[in-house]
Amino acid sequence: MKLNTILQLNFWHNKRIQLSLWLLMVIISVGLHMHNFNNFLIYKFTFWHALEQKSLFAAYPLDHSDVNHYGPIFSLIIAPFAIIPSLWVGVFLWHLALALFLWWAIKKSTLTITQQTVVIWLTAHEMLNALGMSQFNVATAAMIALSYSAIHREKEMWAAFWIVLGTLVKIYGIVGLAFFFFAKNKKKFSLWLVLWTIILIAAPMPFFGIEYIGRQYIEWAVCLVEKGGENLFSDFQNISLLGMVRKIGYACSAGLTEYYNVYWFKTTPDASNWWVSTWNDLWLIIPGLIISALPGLRFKQYQSHTFQLMCLALVLIIVNIFSTGSENSSYIISMIGVAIWFVAVPWQRSRWDYALLIFCFILTSLSPTDLFPGYIRTFWIRAFALKSLPVVLIWLKLVWEMCTRDYAQTVCLTAQQEK
């Protein structure tokens, strides 16, 4: 049965069922993690630490483990949830707000109704993964999507707002600048980028003080640089193409036992090891970014809406595979991109494309769950960042399509049917 035939069933299109599914993900995310709300505590205390004029990026072991890595403006965003006395209520409302924000971003997108349906169903479980850690990545995905939607509708002010806000909270939002080439009024868009940068950098200052916020921006920059070094062999970070190559390379050069000792924090990587001393992530990052930029040379395709949607899918995907900060919960961003790649093209997907999507859903989205044996999940998939593998393959397929297929002279079949 073809995808279009399956999607004609009313069950999939029913908005109440779709919304109920996402609300169910919120409830499950709170219920499964009621014993550990550490990430939310980190977020909550950014507001209180800002009020107390304390560093937003220092360690506070009496309050929570780990440290904050979000920009100073996040202390304002989290404020309505931080002041709620009940931790459980605060967590539930935070998860609900994140889910509804991404829901709204998808519904406000330029995707057709059928395409929105596919995206919602395909990414529901990955959203559960992100909500389970109370992560802001859900909102990051929404902001990137909203920035493109605003560009397409010639609402440069809002496009610039979402890009700047996303960047100042978590640097991933900066990828929205890729949509600059689709802006009809580039001067207006550039002006709004400058204005929103000034406004949003200054936004926390009336509440917490100019000098204090200025110091926190400096601390944030230092914190991000240090975090990049810490992520290289992290068990829960660097789940990317960079991490996969670095970790597999070290295991091959030093041996599995030595690698697992590093993986379990029993020892640090051997600095004298030839792989550690010679390998540089730039050997992947630079070619990867060049490859990702190749579709940008197809200027005649710029006017095609479907080509632009593939650009959106592309930036959503590369956010994770070329970042040492990528983690299990950040893949909600890339899974939105994968779903758009699959459904928003102006041709019927092949069996190989279906197989690639299924492979991605199983290994990328389901691998953190108990559907996978604990040993395989821990010692292979997580240890070697294999969650990123299907997304890397889809990235290569997407770039190839964008460099070879004609988006300008074809019309999406699903869009025609809906019209």
Q: How many DSSP-defined strands?
A: 0
Overall average residue pLDDT: 90
What fraction, in percent, of the residue positions are helical?
55-70%
Low-pLDDT runs of 5+ residues are 411-419
Largest sheet: none
Termini separation comes to: 22 Å
Structural class: mainly alpha
Amount of beta strand: under 5%
Judging from the principal axes of the Cα atoms, what is the shape?
A: globular
H/E element sequence? HHHHHHHHHHHHHHHHHHHHHHH
> Total number of helical segments?
23
User: Over all CA atoms, what is the radius of gyration?
Assistant: 21 Å
Condensed summary:
The protein is mainly alpha-helical and 419 residues long. It has 23 helices and no strands.
List keywords for this structure.
disordered C terminus; 419 residues; 66% helix; mainly alpha; globular
Give an overview of the whole structure:
The protein is an all-alpha fold and 419 residues long. The chain has 23 helices and no strands. The C terminus is likely disordered.
